[in-house]
Design goal:
The protein has 135 residues and is α+β, with helices and mostly antiparallel strands. Helix content is 23%, strand content 17%. The chain has a 5-stranded mixed sheet, with helices on one face. Helix 1 crosses helix 2.
Amino acid sequence: MLTRVDPGPAVVVCNSCRHSRDAQVDAGGVRGGARLVAALRRLRAHEPRYAGIAVQEMACLFACQDFCTVHLRAPDKIGYVLGRFGADDAAARAILDYAVHYAASDDGRVAYALWPEGVKGHFITRIPPPGWIAE
């Protein structure tokens, strides 16, 4: 059930997420999460500043009410679950821009002034790393 992946900074995307509360698939029969994975990978492949952020996917993060959900994680850093994104390049860019700041941080906290506009209001929860709690 588990697949080992690189433990470095990553955006883990729910590839089975809906496009919205009402729409599971688009006109082509593709789920929102799969479209978001594609957008993230496309941007990452063409922009060197995103090279240090892995884009990983898995089926269902169990945040179905918050469609197009991602988990941002890195060793010994607070993790974050974000959702309610569009399955498009604008959302992918905001997620990756935030992830760059996140990866550069000491503990996973990013100053609000550095947050891209596209992630504001999308945070669902934060998760302490194993063996730690956040102050």
